[in-house]
Amino acid sequence: MRKKYIALVGVIFLAMVLVGCSPIQKILYPTKRSYNFNQIADRIVKDLEERNNKDLVTYFTINMRKSYGKTEIIEELKKAETGLGKVRNYKLDEVGKSGHRGGEGETVTTWELTIYTDQGAYCACVDWSDGDDSKGLDSKLYRNTEGIKRLMLIPKEFDTVENLSEFDGVDFPVLYPGIQR
Length: 181
Hints:
By secondary structure, the protein is an alpha+beta fold. The protein is built from seven helices and four strands, in the order ααααααβββαβ.
């Protein structure tokens, strides 16, 4: 009798995997973007510190990578990281959230990372999309809109445009105040 239950559970689990049950797929095949931002903030800060931009670019939404190109995003990240220095610690705060009506659509949460380095304090604002679920959780739209939509990295002491001289030429999706396409 016990073997029948084990076999039944195994068949059900296998059927769920083959059919494409979304929660099971996320457990078995998680992507970096399939997590909440607060679960991966440590890795993103580490990638910023180590200038591991090839890994960091994978956290951007697929739509952003297609629209701007991986190479361009990596180049913008390199420019943004020039004065960052060695990270000592950081603080993570959720500072805003966009919503949608009807329970379906894209929710974008704005996170503020205050990064304390040996070169001073920096503020990294990240717009993180949980994905547009208006066509379902298994849709291409959902997968393509999951991840970082915008990343802004500025010195905490920023108060005037003159303080941004080290960031000349940095552009969206790695965004700085006053610099837009």
